Structure formats: structure tokens, C-alpha cells
Amino acid sequence: MKAVVKLKRGRGNIALMDVEKPVCGERDVLIRVKAVGVCGTDYHIYTDEYDTCPPMIVGHEFSGEVVEVGKEVKNIKIGERVVCEVSVNTCGVCRYCKTGNYQICPSKKAPGTHIDGAYAEFIKMPPHLVHKIPDNVTFEEAAVVEPSAIVAHSLLERTKIEPEDFVVVMGPGPIGLLAAQMARIYGARAVMIVGTDIDKKLRLPLANKLKADYVVNASETDVVQKVLEMTNGMGADLVVECSGAAPAINTGIELLRKHGRMCVIGIPGPEKIQINWKKAVLKAINVIFNFSSSSLSWDLVLSMLNRNVLDVKSLISHKEPLENWETVFKEIEKGNVIKAVLIP
Fold first, then answer.
1. Which structural domain, as residue segments, surrounds residue 338?
2. Most buried in the list 7, 10, 79, 86, measured by CB within 10 Å?
């Protein structure tokens, strides 16, 4: 089968090649990949800024159709349309697994990072990670469930939206645009999404299309002053930090009210960053750090999609055959992509 493989560490070192089709074991589900989302992590694997275990097939945001099931698999049928969680090979016995947090199990092996992923025609997965796609959701939309589940876990399960929250989302990338929508769905009174000049062409206009209450370019507007004006001098109740950038993190701390909450989803690069920790302490803010997704968060997202209240289709700016993976990565490098989906 055709697959996009990270051959070894170092920038690039990725190639489209023929590899062996996965063999479906007794406790496996074999899936024909119908669509696979291009994650920022995938691009950083390309630039070698993300730890990986090559050689392995790239990709983890995918949807597909079941084509084979192992003889011990009872709850999944051939022909079903599915998406899959990415917490493979968890131990089941550590504290995290036993408390339902297997996504942070030390033994976890993620497709596209540690083991073969989904930039391929087929992938095999454990059946307990499989979720069925509602009939009214396309394969392309379903390929965005994985990043949506990260947002649902971070924002809805761990941080929680409180009634009448004034929410500020720092960073209008796919994660930020999803977070802004979920904040409104679950009870925020107003949502502001903040970007910079680099976001003027694509992302800030899309934030307006998705009906954020306030769309602000921090390169042109004093965000802190704007938030204070909107909240009668109080400050925001909740900041959702999706950028991983020190200026945005510090701005978020500055504009939060005392006892405000910061939901941290964005991941900084390898360099140390300077954070105004004293300001955070004096405001006694609550900071909730987040990583990956829970099983429940996938169900939440699939329910939102089934009810047509979460728009992921508008985030998909590029749809290309798998063979064009490198073209997509070059467009990401130029800042021309919101969310890309590859079709094997």
C-alpha cells in the first residue's frame, strides 16, 4: 500500500513509498483510511521539531471504513464508518489508566509518532479505541474529530465553561476556532478570539464567519484594554490559550480577572519562554494544563457533529490526495492553510 513515511530523524526525511499492508490480528480492527487530517504535529515531524521513533508512517487524525475485524472482536462490523482514539498500547495498570486517564499513560504509543500512523491506505487499531461516525457526518469532517476531542477534553471536561463566562481565545488556528465554538455552545455569554497580522488573510475572517462575538488583531488593538472595556473593568473570566507563544500567554494573564481561569492547550516550542508568573500569582488565577483527549471527549464531539452545532467543515481549507502531502506542507510553511485533509 502507499504510505507517507518518516524514514529517520532530521528535517525532511519523509517519502511516499510502498509498504506492507497491516495484518489484522485476532484483537485488531483493520480500517481503510478515507481521510486524514494534517496536524501541526505532523508538520513539526517534517521539520524534526517533534520527538518521533522512525521509521514509521506519519499521521493520527483520521476517519475510515472497517474492512476486517479479528475473530475476538465482537462489537464492530465490516463496513462501519469510524474514527479512532490514539492511545495505543497503554498498560492498563498504572494510576492514570486506572483513573480513566490512559491518554497520559507512560506506556502509550501514539500512531504517527511512536508507531505507524494514518498517512496510508490502511491502518490497524485496537477495537476499544474505535468510535462510530454518525450518518450525517462526512469522512472529511470526521477527520477533524481528533483535534476537536482535544478541545472538548481541555475546555469542557477539565476547565469547564461556567454560565455567562466572558471567554478570550488566544490563537485563531484550528484549535482556537474549535474552542471558540465550544465556548458558545456550552454557555459563554461572549467569546473574543485574538490573532495577529499573520492571521489577517485567513484565520481572522474565518473567526468572523464562525460568529465569534469579537475578533481582535493584537497587532493593531490593545487587547487588554479592549477586554476591560467589554467587561466593565473586571477582566475575562476564562482565557483559552491555544498559541503556545509567550506574548499571548502573558497577554492572557494580563487580561484575566482575579480568580480567573486559564485553559492551556497550546504547546510551546523547545525553547524556554518568559512568563509573568508574579502577575498570575497576585491575581490568584487558576491555570489548567491539558494534553491529548479522553474517551468521553470523542463522544461529546461526535454528538455535537450529529446535532450540527459544531462547524468543522469551514476549517478545512485544503483537500488533496495523499500523493500531494509535500505540497500541503509547503503551503503550511507559507501560512496558507487552516486545516488540510489528505485523501488516500
1. 2-144+312-343
2. 86
pLDDT digits (tens, 9 = 90+) for 120-151: 999 999 999 999 999 999 999 999 999 999 99
Tell me the C-alpha to C-alpha distance, in Å, between residue 308 and each of 96, 139, 163, 190, 245.
33, 15, 22, 20, 32
Q: Are 170 and 248 in contact (CB under 8 A)?
A: yes
- Which amino acid, one-letter code, is at 268? P
Same domain, yes or no: 104 and 218: no
Radius of gyration, alpha carbons of the chain: 20
Based on the domain organization, do 139 and 179 belong to the same domain? no
> Could you give the number of structural domains in the chain?
2
Residues 121 and 19 in one domain: yes
pTM of the model: 0.96
Boundary (domain end) residue, out of 257, 274, 289? 289
At 271 the pLDDT is 83
Is residue 269 scored above 90 in pLDDT?
no
